[in-house]
Amino acid sequence: MKAILITHVHGDHCYGLPGILASATMGGRTAPLTIVAPAGIQTWLEATCAVTQLSLPFALEFICSDELPCVEFESMAVTTFVLSHRVPCYAYAFTERNVDAALDVDKLDQQGIPRGPLWGQLKQGMDVAFEGKQLRSQDYLLFKHAPRKVVIAGDNDQPELLAQACAGAQVLVHEATYTEEMAQKAGEVGHSYGKQVAAFAERVTLPNLVLTHFSPRYPLISHASPSIEDIRKEAHSAYSGTLYMAQDFGEYSLDKAGRFSELVGE
Predict the structure, then answer these.
(1) What are the two backbone dihedrals, phi and then psi, of residue 191, each rounded to the nearest 5 degrees?
(2) Catalytic residue selected from 12, 100, 106, 248
(3) Are residues 204 and 95 in the same domain?
(4) Percentages helix, strand, coil for the chain, rounded to the nearest 5?
(5) pTM, whole model, 2 decimals?
(6) Domain identity same for 159 and 232
(7) Is 230 a catalytic residue?
(8) What digits encode the pLDDT tens for the residues 136-160?
């Protein structure tokens, strides 16, 4: 585990953090850990550790998502998008870096960029300076497959805010707290309903949609009503892509060809 990203300060999205860190301590972790989160999480976590005498044998690097346009890790870039909720809340778009690629040799030759170390650096995804200009590696690479991209959103009552984030994405994970009827009864509470998110996903031609964060009023029992099945049916009516209803401990796979699937029984 290299990093933990938190969407907002509400307890159902952050109260598990001290327990995860305590478990990592018991497991012998010593490597530093990055935490990307809104302002307030660092203060709360440090107070919790102090009051409960939780001493961590590894360093925490806090990055405030309120001020973060993008952060790069070894294998992916994470971009932050502002959502609409009762407190500052964010979505994170995870885009694959260092995709298998070949150099565009013809383009390099045409622009007079000499063979040698510069080519090697561009091939490794590094931007380089040449004759007073900055060469972007992305401009000289021929990718063998499109970079994989997944968008994971926090609480949000305006899915359309994610239009830019979802450009080129294979998957969106978004909350669907209510059915449409219950959302109208609840009023402006900073949450979406399944059909609303599905209609957005259809408009931006997202191939895969994972709905999550269901209100406790909707149990898993499919033959009863209200249930999660009600949310699924509403969403399915507005969406022609592949729809998933998230479950606790669910696991998914996104292969290099962009094929997304749920791992069952693994």
Answers:
(1) -125, 160
(2) 12
(3) yes
(4) 30, 25, 45
(5) 0.86
(6) yes
(7) no
(8) 888 998 988 889 999 999 999 999 9
